[in-house]
Amino acid sequence: MKIDRRSFLAFAIGGAAGTALTPLPWKLTDDSSIWSQNWPWTPVPAKGENSYARTSCTLCPGGCGLMVRMVGDRAVKIEGLEGHPVNEGGACALGLSGLQLLYGATRVRAPMKRVGKRGEGRWEKISWDEALAGLAQKLAKLRNDGQSHTVAGIVDGRYGTVSTLFKRFMTVYGSPNMMTTPSAGDTRAMVLQVMHGVEAEAGFDLENADYILSFGSGLIEGWGSPVRMFRANSAWRESGAKVVQIESRLSNTAAKSDRWIPINPGTEAALALGIAHIMIKESLFDSDFVENYTEGFVGWKEVVLDEYSPEKVASITGVDKMTIVRVAREFATAGKPLALCGRGRGDTPGSLSEAMAVHTINALSGNINKEGGVVAVPPPAYAQWPDMEMDGTAQNGMVKNRVDGAGSDKFPMAASLLNRFAAGVAAAEAYPVNVLLVSGANPVYTTPDADGFKKAVDNIPFVVSFSSYMDETAMQADLVLPNHVYLERYEDVPITAGLQRPMVGLAQPVVQPLHDTRHVGDVIIQLARSLGGGIGDAFPWDDYETCLQEVLGAKWDALSEEGLWQDESFEPPGWGESFKTASGKFEFMNPEMGLMPSYVPLGLEGNASTFPLVLMPFDSMRLAAGFISDPPFAIKVVEDTLLKGKDTCVEINPETARSLGLADGKPAVLSTPKGKARVRVHTFQGIMPGVVAIPRGLGHTANDKYMAGKGTNSNALIGPVEDPASGMDKAWGIRAKLAKA
Amino acid sequence: MSTLEDQKHAVSDKETESPAAPIILFFIIGFAASLIIGWGIFPKLLYSQKRQPIDFNHALHVEEVGGECESCHYFREDGRFSGIPNLATCMECHEDVIGASAEEEKFVTEYVIPEREVPWLVYARQPDCVYFSHAPHVIAGKMTCVECHGHIGESVQSRIYEENRITGYSRDIWGRNIAGLAQNPWERMKMDDCSKCHVRENVNQGSVQTQKGGCFVCHK
Amino acid sequence: MKEAHGQKKNKKFGMVIDLDKCTGCGTCMVACMAENNVSFREDESDKLLGSAWMRVYKITNGKPFPETDVCYIPRPCMHCEGHHGHSPCVSVCPATATDYDMHTGVVSQIYTRCFGCRYCMAACPYHARVFNWWDPVWPAEMEKMLNPDVSVRMRGVVEKCSFCYHRYQHAMEKAYYEERSDIEEDEYQTSCTQACPAGAITFGDLNNPEHAVHQLVKPDNRHGGRPRNPHAFRLLERLGTNPKVYYLSSREWVRRAGDNYVKNEKAGSGGH
Q1: Complete DSSP assignment for A539-589
Q2: C177 and which of A176, A692, B31, B79 could share a cystine (Cβ 3.0–4.6 Å)?
Q3: Closest partner CB to B206 (pick from C103, C175, C177)
Q4: What CA–CA distances, in Å, run from A94 to B106, C67, C144?
Q5: Across the interface, which of B127, B135, B204 has its CB nearest the CB of C5?
Q6: Does the pLDDT value for residue B17 go beyond 70?
Q7: pLDDT at B14 over 60
Q8: Where would I find the beta strands (DSSP E) of A139-183?
Q9: pLDDT category, B3, cuts 50, 70, 90?
Q10: What is the ipTM of this complex?
């Protein structure tokens, strides 16, 4: 039988007919379509037992309580903790992105030793034993050479067991150079030191105030404890409380307020004193408080009446006279008025004289330590530490002058002046800095004149970072000893962000540590023990967890059960007991020390002809600008009027844009005396002509590709201006130029 | 001339020699072959035969543990179903070898001691797009386990797991029968099978487009 | 429409967003992304390309300094009902990948049926739908944080806010387990509602007079669900989409902007 074309066709048609009568074509079609939906790179998350783990957020000082939803042993969602007094179930964009910090690509997965040059990003993974042995050896040698004081440390804050362990270590080791990341809270605390004579944190009973006068504070931009502020803002809407926002730019706070008072940049103190002037002139102040519980009113009153008349203040601030008078009267006659300061989120300390000026109108209205007013909250002192003994070397080291000049004759009240550190290192007046330890901070990015700070760090022979993330400071380090991420560790979380009573949260691990990281508390204890002698004796605990439980004592039970401890019985003392100054009363000023509530023009860096504009940074809830930088979810929600492609967008008034020949969306070059950057223009009617606003939190060069290389670091363009009164950085801006690209 | 004509005739004679037979024959061969392939060989090629990591004896456990299916397959407090027991559940009894079988020894050696979850092959696993909840069916709908899963509790051995090589799903989804015909729910459970019962019981028939079940009733 | 098995009245899940309280903080956007496995890319500054189910817009009153004012408007999917369940997007889908459920009022989106023609994206007047141009990438260990209750999408499909319907599914599951046949108001809340730190978002059953959303806006079902509360409004009301997301604002310029009022147009003159 010959097989020709016809028979082959017959065979094929028979085959086709038969196939059509089998399930094969239908099944294959169905299977192929299913196959096309099952690409192996589309993950199918595993199911598992659902549970919730409670912890405290540590990404900002706000102290929110968190519930983390777990599926099996995976953390899948962070949610706010219902019933927590700070956040009541709410959260913020940064807090909710926290899992991306835990599971993200910026994590340092093991101790890293630098190979190659600093900043090259080449690392060698080493074991913890090797890392700690190497560091201990270096520290021991310095100590033996009598150079213990040349070790400097930077930590996130003054309170909490980790910061205390650091301080304890530095003390018994023999170095006074312990610094903290500065903030407006430092200035407010100093105001209480000067005017109340107490060591306290400034708390605000905002929820009970009915007239809030904010001098540039970003009440819904992240000031204080952000979620608490959002809830307070909503509560004000319902209670009818009035919010007046004094700011050069229409921030979200200004837009949400009942009245926005645009003001010439940097003149807030003048306005505060102008209000004081009217309160004094029209006798609209609390005479009981002023006459019986204050000192120096007569002298101070003369200055205010002389120098801060409404006409003078109007010409300084650009706010018209009638508004000044009206606001002053509204403030003074409100039932529970409250004046707030600390620009934006409060990341920079600001001027002491300005903070004092704002505090005086609180004093005049008698809202000190009262419902709805300013509360001097005692600093968190919930831990009991065993005594420590300092040997000769330690004692010698501790009396040396600090590199940053804090506590010196010039700045006797300051505890830490990180803004002066770079200059101190460069000058190396008394001694150089040989080792820098950095924990919970990213000063190479966050310090104003960031490039200057980086140069100073270049001069320090040995830099150690305890960061969990490969941030800018870790990139400049010689050794990275990664801490567990907050979701992997125990730590007490003292909440001092403007709350009106002492409160401490507890961060608890929700997952086992993912990588070869170690709790920084454990590292300090181990380091101390390996140095031995008096240093080792000061750390009589096996590990951090034991230390935490012991020093917290009875509070540990409350904390581990509730996740929170608050002093519910706390009541601010009456005026009779509130003030511990030399006079025993509230002091309006301290002229001998040169501490006056006053308006002192900043003296912006740069000359007005080269740099005709004024550059001011602003804060956004969607852009973290501190130790933690935006995870991918957070940077994703940043508006395209702040970040476009790889360019930061700067905000200017359309009038200013026109005069400079710039158009909305077009590239431009922003220059300041500190540097220049390519930016894009965003024209916005809500900003004063002549002012340029730049968002904080962009311009990272480290971390991962979701954050690095986007925009400009505002800290690189703005430099610090030293406040002669406090030593802290009082700059709120700098002169700038904006030209076509 | 005559030879050409003769040749023509010869050719045409040849052509009338029942030429259709080979063609029909080829058709029949093709037809039959494709039927055999489609019905017989195709299913064998399509499905791979896999064994469960441990040959589990349900009947023995039902007897020993007592209770019904709920002893190991239960609802959690949030209403979710626990599914196949995890290692911790098995370890409540099997921390060490308690029986005589080689399979149990294998279980303890390879899974209990190294604390490794057993990678059970789930016959009823639906695609990721499917949302199935036991609670409305078992508790509100008062259905029994056997109604959908069959008499698996009486088995002494684990059934072979047949996996579709193209889709990666169990044979039980499309149907044990290659034509997708099934008598019982445990033989086939595609969308139409779920829908058939939902329509019959009038469950959430709120869809505007289809006048049948809303999509989110069974999908996520 | 057949009455549901075991359920009484049809539910109509909806949302009320108080624009006086909204601070523009962006928490709702992140909460939604974290809950629903929404993807992210390296450059998200081109907002037309990125995937966002909840988006917060910023509008201004157009006045010059210093009379400028701004308002933030969070915009999830409106779950439009149209006329009797004919949402604009549902009406045009050739694959029945999206559907309106009369029992809950939720517009579903099933990724396995969608073949990415994007007709629904053209139909939606609110730009609520987004398209996955690329396969999502979860770097490092971030696949671990994916929520198993929500399908993970691949490229080529359209996605949108689902009013966190998986939370409804699991709330009902719990109710069945506890031998109830219905859920309480607080048992089903969307992720954005839960996260909003200002308490600006309220979610619930618009058909239930005891639920907060009903009390806040008092919808008039005889007039396409229009709110009776004079401070409440819906976006693009006059298109007749009958959306289920209502907004509250004490500022008239915001209410006017919500329906594109022309300069001298009188308030309340729009709509069908």
Answers
A1: ---SSHHHHHHHHHTTHHHHHHHHSEEE-TT--PPPHHHH--STTSSEES-
A2: B79
A3: C103
A4: 48, 32, 19
A5: B204
A6: no
A7: no
A8: 151-155, 178-180
A9: low
A10: 0.94
